[in-house]
Write a structure and sequence with these properties.
mainly alpha, 3-stranded mixed sheet, single chain
């Protein structure tokens, strides 16, 4: 063992020390240059988009919409809208032909679905707990609390030739 070898060192020395010092000097110069560039641009009337990309440059439509949705807090309504677009995939083709999602109440977290017959409405009511679990799996826990199933509307009321002028329909005499 020679006396020149001091053993393992924890601090850099020699060429390694020079590299560390050079890297630190470059980073400090870059930081000073960036700060000077920003002051110079501010004096010229504000920051401007130049050759390098920054936050003011145009964005593709997809990322711009995603950024807007995040900034406005529209994640859940947008996700539910996506579910309405994928309704046949979620519930199956047969059920999707007869039951259509109408609207989503964000405050109550209720999905309203309109069915074209009472038989399909009954079927959907039986499937509702499993469907709520499936939707919450896709959208995040608690996004949909319940599914409100609407029965089909009755046929439009037809008024015959003996309708009284000024009448509001068959219910106007019960009041």
């Amino acid at each position: 063992m020679s006396t020149d070898d001091p053993g393992p060192r924890k601090e850099p020395y020699g060429v390694d020390l020079a590299r560390v010092a050079l890297r630190a000097a470059k980073e400090a110069a870059r930081a000073r240059g960036d700060a000077a560039q920003q002051r110079k641009q501010a004096r010229r009337g504000g920051l401007r988009s130049g050759a390098r990309a920054d936050g003011r440059d145009p964005m593709p439509l997809g990322p711009a919409i995603n950024r807007l949705i995040t900034e406005r807090g529209w994640e859940t309504p947008a996700a539910v809208g996506g579910v309405m677009g994928r309704w046949p995939e979620i519930v199956g083709e047969d059920l999707a032909k007869h039951c259509v999602p109408e609207r989503y109440d964000e405050d109550e977290r209720v999905l309203v679905v309109q069915c074209d017959s009472t038989a399909w409405a009954t079927q959907l009511r039986h499937l509702a707990p499993a469907l709520v679990a499936r939707l919450n799996e896709d959208l995040g826990h608690g996004s949909v609390r319940m599914i409100k199933v609407l029965n089909p509307g009755g046929p439009a009321r037809r008024y015959g030739p003996l309708r009284a002028p000024g009448s509001t329909g068959p219910g106007d005499t019960y009041g």
